[in-house]
Amino acid sequence: MELQGCLKALLPNPCSRVVRNHDPIILVLMETKVGGERAREILGMLPFDNAIHTDTIGYTGGLWMLWNSDREEVTSLASTEQEIHTIIKVMNSNSCWLFTEVYASPKSAERHILWDNLNRIAELHNMPWVLAGDFNEPSLDDDKFRGRAVSINRSLLLKDCLDNCNMMDIGFSSRWFTWTNKREIQALIQERIDRFFVNPSWCLLFPEAKVVHLIRCHSELCSVLLDLSLTTRVGRNRPFKFQTCWLTDLTFPKVFTQAWGQTDSLVEAVEKFTKDVGLWNKEHFGNIFAKKKNIKARLNVDNANCATIREVLNVFCGVLRQTISEAKSRVYFSPTMDDATKEALYGVLGFVLTPNLGKYLGIPIKHPRSSSQDYNFVLDRVKQKLAGWKASLLSMAGQNGTSEAARKIHWVGWHKVTKPKDKGGLGLQTAKGRNIALLAKLNWRLHNENDALWAKVLDAKYYTSRRRNLGNANSLPCSRMWTAIKKGREVFMKGSRWTIGKDSKISFRYGNWTKQGSIRQLIEGPLTQEASMLEIKDVIQDLRWNWSKLPFEFPADYKLMLQAIPISFQGRGSDKLAWVGNPRGIFYLKSAYGKEMGDDTNLAFNANWIWKLMTLPCIQYFLWKCAHNSIGVKDCLVERGVGRDNQCAICQGGAETIVHALKDCPRVQLTWRQLGVQDNNRGLWQSELKD
Hints:
Blueprint: E1 2-7, H1 12-22, E2 26-30, H2 36-45, E3 50-53, E4 63-67, E5 72-79, E6 83-90, E7 96-103, H3 108-122, E8 129-134, E9 144-145, H4 152-164, E10 168-169, E11 179-180, E12 190-191, E13 194-198, H5 200-205, E14 210-213, E15 224-227, H6 252-260, H7 266-284, H8 288-320, E16 330-331, H9 339-349, E17 352-353, E18 359-360, E19 363-364, H10 376-388, H11 396-402, H12 414-417, H13 431-448, H14 453-462, H15 465-469, H16 480-495, E20 496-499, H17 519-522, H18 529-532, H19 536-539, E21 540-541, E22 544-545, H20 556-563, E23 576-579, H21 589-597, H22 617-627, H23 634-639, H24 658-664, H25 666-674, H26 682-685
């Protein structure tokens, strides 16, 4: 069976010659330049009983598709001036596939419309697909002989369209170019613009298909033939053959017993068993020969892909005059691939097979999925560094953060240590809180750097309509990157706010643009669909709020709050994202960390004077521990369940508190006097040392 593209061959005699020589099941005519009654008149003269034709584009274009209904069934789906979409079903085949006939307009702007249409078609189906026709655009420099150079931008647009449609070129035989200007050799221009593209599923359906460029006649374009290479079986049915693999299935004896137990006639029993076991085989084993054929077809495609990769590497090395180190290069295959296939493919590439891709820039390249355990080496390295540092190189605060519970008492809780200094802590940050703050920064960059390539990739993959409209979108699978971004989204939402302009497109009810969050969080209750669709610009009129636009009564205190929000009426009046923890409106990591850990504005620390002292850090740290009642005196030990006696072992004159140990004990007072502190120093002797 053959599929023919015959271009600019309008006369009945040339078409009849093509039909007679190649017997096509479908004949495609392009750039006919004929429409209306004249087109129907010519179609009636051709040896086909069905046809589809489109209107011309001025004095160019025109698409005809002809076939005979006794050989194939064609269902027309849609058509434009540049394309015809049909579903083809050959009579002696059970397979259906999509066939698109294309004549790309010579005008670049109209070709863009065609590429967009093909991209949309690709999203609507997953059928085997053939895309054929005159694309009016060489894709490579090798596809053109002389004339203007191939436009890189236009060829990339065609390539992007083919990539989106998952199309591949299956090659061709015979002459290279399909179009010529028929000039003398000094002015001769030739191009390959008439192409057949197929997707992988069609290639598996017809693994032996090939494209042939026929001899040019009556036109500057040559005919292009797609030969499906199908052979029709003639003769009796295949004889019955018992398959040994049937014995491995436990349900086979039941089929055998049912066939032989219902009749005494040997002939009837054999016929029934043959019929029943055939149906049973299709359900349990399927068509083994077809599966084997498909696997071979896939192997052929994989071999071709590997050969192409090797060829590209060779060309790359030839251009740069460099060589690839095969000793250092590795090739990795899916774990599900069998060993024989791996050996065949990496033999084509010429690289050593590896089960693990190792690390790149210190990060493990893990397939198919990675886990948190893959990064345990980071923790191990940090522990080794800390273990190698001597205690003398760390400050008292550093020793407090790295001490081991098995050796020392944790006098101050970790939740206090990690608070800011003005809240009674040491200003250390927890690893988890810091990581969440950095993930909030990643959310900030995702919203502000939307033109960056990485942001476009994440937006196209995860900001789909399905995820936006699905109630349980968080249950959908996603990468580790997107999972991390979602963890930082809550802090990002807390710390960010929209600054609005006069043309604001932010939702009045759902947008995060007030100091207290969205209007939905402030005002509860059902609203009409019209009210839910309101944008801020709909409520602003003549540089002021127009409350009559709201279909509900807005509370007076909330009106005052909105009137206090500054609105930009200069320039374009567009919306901007601002960070509320920074006067400049840019992201502030310290503020994000505070929002993650919970800013407790009511918590006050009465000993902030400690950090203002002009003294050594170790003394400041000691005074900080005193302020938290966390010095190893007996009174503090008893409070923590260590011992029962809190009496001072030196003077036996009272409980050994921090104040007693620093000032009230007679032995300590003697030491102060020896240091030069006079008895009339009321600032020391009469104070409680707590302010």
